[in-house]
Write a structure and sequence with these properties.
CATH superfamily of the largest domain in chain A: Thiamin diphosphate (ThDP)-binding fold, Pyr/PP domains
Strand content of chain B: 5-15%
Radius of gyration of chain A: 19 Å
CATH architecture of the largest domain in chain A: 3-Layer(aba) Sandwich
Largest interface: A-B, 33 and 31 residues
Distance between the termini of chain B: 29 Å
Oligomer: heterodimer
Number of helices of chain B: 11
Bound molecules: thiamine diphosphate, magnesium ion
Radius of gyration of chain B: 17 Å
Shape of chain A: globular
Number of helices of chain A: 13
Number of domains of chain A: 2
CATH topology of chain B: Rossmann fold
């Protein structure tokens, strides 16, 4: 069954495509924006911006750590560099450069990691960013966003350009269902409730928002009404929304396409413990790397399905 | 290996590996055939020209030679060589990139015996090779480590750090080969990042260097012979190649002389294989 089918969501665009289009469109309004690429602009879609504004696109070659520090230099001259690569190569290859050339000096660099998660499929685990959210969230005073669909990614792209300071936006490779039609309410640090429900709250990000809506459709047939929160900002976390969900539903499941350690689950759990402790369950990639395969087969094999989310809900309610 | 195969036999092997690489990526519907094809002569010479002392039946034999494909996306050519050398059945090649298959989109040493390094994030293979060359030397093995690097991959600063380290330790048991096919993902290396001439830049670090036509089997074989004769410094072979070598007319017809990361559609794959077999 295709993602979003159970909850009747139409298929939409890939979040990397939405990011690329939004950046190209916003280029004229934000004259300080420049892109720094590491020979993957045709994958991350920053080439659309660079083709539209050739004098504002830099490609340093396959050299991620250099790329990030170059962006730091551009930012310290008042530019707003958008630095995109595969999430795995950006965060993992250039982490010290992100720390020393971006986060520590608190420069206005916009990091964008595409090809996140196992849903990239056939290219396999070396190309799958599954630690990026943990790494990005570990950086002090850095905004971390993981968007769920095209419209919210466009809104996040604008919000990241408006924000003064380091940001990380995580995007995916495959097409994902439309979560928002029309205007998206998008404020950094404010979760969106995409389904109301009082029996349990599912907090999700990325493509797991659609999966969670599918799970909610399954659960509704069993008489369980699940609230689904699109927690598009992992940092700063929307503490109020988490506390309210815990208070009003009494059980929380967190679903994400990321390793267990340091991801959304860990962040929400620490928030729940501090505000309103309730039983929790987690749907994520656990503590192991995946493999090559077709995206749907991988999501199934590694337990990122509507059925897995529904089972976690039953467990936590049980 | 006992008898050294002739240049003609090795050329035929290289084209056989090319056919496998094309078939398997077309079947998978994704992958990097053009990046595989430029390295066909080097890979065939290493696995079948008597240079790689490995035993598929005993893939962890400590004194074996090591082959690291640092440009891991070109792994179809490596898998083809491994299958022909007897690591696994040739039929398994067609499971490339399929769920459950150890023949993954990029080499994964935890899943496939005979893979010496998990690669796919460019820039790290030569450093791993330096570590293996140091380790093997400590253990007194008279073996050799071979590393194949992409010319775009040379943009990673880490490769240059490894070049310096290998020279410092005079790693005479390390041979690196740059597959200089002139292209990287977003265009030609001339437009993205031109670091040629590689030999002139690398020799001053303390490396023995040679620059050859990397798609000429005769030149590859004599360069490897010269490299393995050097034992007091690391050796670099700059292999000038063509991306998609062997099926250049097909790339021309498709109007893309890079064709990076694109499998051939079945009808084009058939044409390409016919060309290689003609
Ligand atoms: C660290 C890292 N950055 C980016 C990529 C994405 N990528 C895969 S292949 C490639 C181009 C490689 O060019 P080259 O080394 O010249 O190899 P070729 O395909 O030409 O043989 C890029 C940028 C990667 N795999 N690893
Ligand atoms: Mg190249």
């Amino acid at each position: 069954m295709a993602l979003g089918e159970l909850s009747g969501l139409p298929m939409g665009e890939a979040t990397r495509d939405a990011f690329g289009r939004a950046l190209e469109e916003l280029g004229a309004t934000y004259p300080n924006v420049v892109t720094v690429d590491g020979d993957v602009g045709n994958s991350t879609r920053t080439e659309w911006f660079a083709n539209a504004f050739p004098e504002r696109g830099f490609n340093v070659g396959i050299a991620e750590s250099n790329m990030v520090s170059v962006a730091g230099g551009l930012a310290s001259c008042g530019k707003t560099p958008v630095v995109a690569s595969f999430a795995a190569f950006l965060l993992c290859n250039a982490f010290d450069q992100i720390r020393m050339s971006v986060a520590f000096p608190r420069l206005n660099v916009k990091l964008v990691g595409t090809h996140a998660g196992i849903s990239i499929g056939e290219d396999g685990p070396s190309q799958m960013g599954v630690e990026d959210v943990a790494l990005a969230c570990s950086l002090a005073d850095t905004v971390v966003m993981v968007t769920s669909d095209g419209a919210s990614t466009r809104a996040a792209t604008k919000a990241m350009l408006e924000h003064d300071g380091p940001t990380y936006l995580r995007c995916g490779r495959p097409k994902v269902p439309v979560i928002y039609d029309g205007d998206v309410p998008f404020t950094i640090g404010k979760a969106n409730t995409v389904r109301e429900g009082g029996d349990v709250a599912i907090v999700a990000n990325g493509l797991m928002v659609a999966t969670s809506l599918d799970a909610a459709a399954l659960l509704a047939k069993e008489g369980i009404e699940a609230r689904v929160l699109d927690m598009h900002t992992a940092k700063p976390i929307d503490e109020e929304a988490v506390a309210k969900a815990a208070e009003e539903t009494g059980a929380i499941v967190v679903a994400e396409e990321h390793l267990a350690a340091g991801g959304l689950g860990a962040i929400v759990a620490s928030t729940v413990v501090r505000t309103k402790p309730v039983p929790m369950a987690f749907v994520n990639l656990g503590d192991s790397y995946a493999e090559s395969g077709d995206p749907d087969g991988l999501l199934e094999k590694y337990g990122l399905t509507a059925e897995a989310v529904a089972a976690a809900v039953r467990g936590v309610k049980g | 290996m006992s008898e050294k195969p002739s240049i003609e036999e090795l050329e035929a092997k290289a084209d056989l590996l090319r056919c496998h690489a094309i078939r398997m990526t077309t079947e998978a519907g994704s992958g990097h055939p053009s990046s595989s094809l430029s390295a066909a002569e080097v890979t065939a010479a290493l696995y079948f020209g008597g240079y790689l002392n490995v035993d598929p039946a005993n893939p962890t034999m400590p004194e074996r030679d090591r082959f690291i494909l640092s440009k891991g996306h070109a792994c179809p050519i490596l898998y083809a060589a491994m299958a022909e050398r007897g690591y696994f059945p040739v039929e398994d090649l067609m499971t490339l990139r399929k769920l459950g298959s150890p023949i993954e989109g990029h080499p994964n040493l935890r899943r496939l015996p005979g893979i010496e390094a998990s690669t796919g994030s460019l820039g790290q293979g030569l450093s791993i090779g330096v570590g293996q060359a140091l380790g093997c030397r400590m253990d007194g093995h008279a073996n050799r480590v071979f590393v194949v690097i992409g010319d775009g991959e040379m943009g990673e600063g880490q490769v240059w750090e490894a070049i310096a380290t290998a020279a410092k330790y005079k790693l005479g048991n390390l041979t690196a080969i740059i597959d200089q096919n002139g292209y990287q993902q977003t265009g030609s290396t001339k437009t993205v990042l031109d670091q040629t001439p590689f030999a002139d830049r690398i020799a001053p670090f303390g490396w023995h260097t040679q620059t050859i036509n990397g798609n000429s089997m005769a030149e590859v074989v004599s360069a490897l012979d010269a490299a393995v004769a050097v034992t007091d410094q690391p050796t670099m072979i700059v292999a000038e190649t063509k991306k998609g070598a062997g099926i250049i007319p097909i790339l021309e017809e498709l109007g893309d002389s890079n064709l990076h990361g694109q499998p051939l559609k079945p009808e084009w794959a058939e044409k390409a294989i016919a060309l290689l077999q003609s």
